[in-house]
Amino acid sequence: MESQSVFFRLCFTVISLFLAYNEATPWSRERCLQIDDGYDCSDLDLQIIPDEVPNSVKILKFSFNYLPSLYNFTFQRLRSLNFLELTSPYTHRCSINFMYEDIFENQPHLEVLILIGNPLVFIADRAFVGPQALKYLSLAQSKIKSLSDIPSDNLVYLEVLDLGGSDIRSLDGLSSFHWQKLRRLELDMNSIQLITADDLKPLHYVVGMNISFKGNDIVYVEPGAFQSLTLGSLDFSGCLGKMDISVLLKGLEGIKTNRLNLGLYETDPAVHIPSSALQYFCSISVTDLNFQIVHFSDLNNSTFHCLEGLQKLDLTRTHLGLLPSILTGLSTLSHLVLDENSFLDVCHINSRSFPKLTHLSMSGNMKKLDFSSRCLESLGSLEELDLSISQVNPTGPCCNDQLFGLGHLKVLNLSYGSPMRWNPQPFSVVPQLEHLDFSRSSYILNDSSPFSSLQNLRTLNISWSNTNLTNVHLFKGLKNLQLLNLKGNPIQGGVLTQTELFKPVPVLETLILSACRITAFEENLFKELTQLKHVDFSENQLTKLSTTAFYSLKFLQLNFASNAIVTVDVGNIMDLGNGGSVDPSYNPLACNCSNFQFINWVKDNKVKVRHLMETVCNGTRTRIIDVHLQCEFPVGILAFSITLAAIVIASGVFCLVRRIRRKYARYTQF
Q: In whole angstroms, what is the distance from residue 575 CA to residue 548 CA?
């Protein structure tokens, strides 16, 4: 009896410990979230820094809390603080209004301070005393009316000053800032109307700064105001509503800048630029010019004659349908963007004007874009051609005649095109191609190996192209392919079995087979793909999470999201290494004892589960990690119980045999 009592007490103890170990801890967002090197305490209606935030914290996100004022004791104990975010929409009742003295006196290592959306009424002269190298300061949407209201004495090492969306009326006070380190000045969406030469005098000794005035209602720029300035970029997009572009360009005469943005926003009134206004570019040095959404009143051969030296020109949505036969001044151009215009044929860009062009984009053309033969032949240096979302319609079979002469092409995007008929070897004239995107397009192909000439191809996207994946010779020649996107191409019969299909791509690293109506796939299907790292089976009809098709699970990242998987055999994922992961989200997972082992595996291997928060129980939408099961006979306990029972039974049998033998021995003595 005593041995039986010990046995039952031992079993009860084991079961109790097992259930206690697996008990889920309720998750709540009433506490700060721990992030890398810090804490996120945003939107918790806090008035002070909670004790759970340690003194050694480096990153603190404390936005949308109750902090109407900042005092020298607010962050006093956080002496290692490097990053502090105190964002608040200015309509919020908890917005910061007052910044008093020595707020950051104890934060010598503070480098990033974000105060977006706070309607600051007062900033003390010593508000920024303490940090030895504050590099990033954002006072965007703070309703500051003057640069003079910002105490700058202690901002010696500032690299970025963001004042966007405030209420600054002028550049008065610019001279009070230290410009030794400043690399970016954001003044967009303010109320600046005038810019004079005196305003910009402090910037004459600065080289490479990026300045943004976008969205200001500027009415006047003094002629030569930017004379002798050398900037990294200058943004005047959305500033031409109340100012003639000639006035602005006169003010820019004598400037040197890598990038100049003179484009518009969609909501801006139409701006028409006459060719005569662009004569001022003869005194402006610029390498990257953006004219997005403007109209050219009288585009002709000499419109851009003052842009000699320009390398990139962005004419997105400039209402063009034809470029002049010869455009003088653009012989040095390497990048030309003609997106969202109304060309009828690729040939209408008259490519002979751009002998050094390496990048050409005509994405999103407003009209169906024909592609006639050999009209890009003069672009022998072209490396990237983007004709996506333009319903490209080649004249005749595609694509050797259309791409003739582009022997150095490396990137070709023909996605969202019209149905087309391919040559037997459609890309043989572009053997250096490394990236081909033919997604959301369809083609007719008679030959079985259309890519065999593309020995250098690294990425191929033929998603949603109605590609026939029963052709086992489809990928022949792609020996260097690293990424293959086959999304949306249906697998006939639902079962993927063609083991020969992927043999020509031995170094493949990423394979996308989502939304292919797959119900199952053959074992060992991908065994020869020893470099495989990412496989996407999402949005299919798989009922089983299987890994038997792969060479190794050590570094493999598997996506089985949005399938029909109810239970998971843990044996399939036990070998996932530290670099491996699985995504079982958005499946109708059972949260009962039939899935007991998988649920426990998820809890023990959270780092290996992608989209953990979206991995939930079917019907209840309870997260797997919050599930607590009380199964009567979990496998581990059942095995343990059987073992103990066997030992007890064996012991009993042994004792019984011994007793029988003793009785038999006594009987024989008589």
A: 11
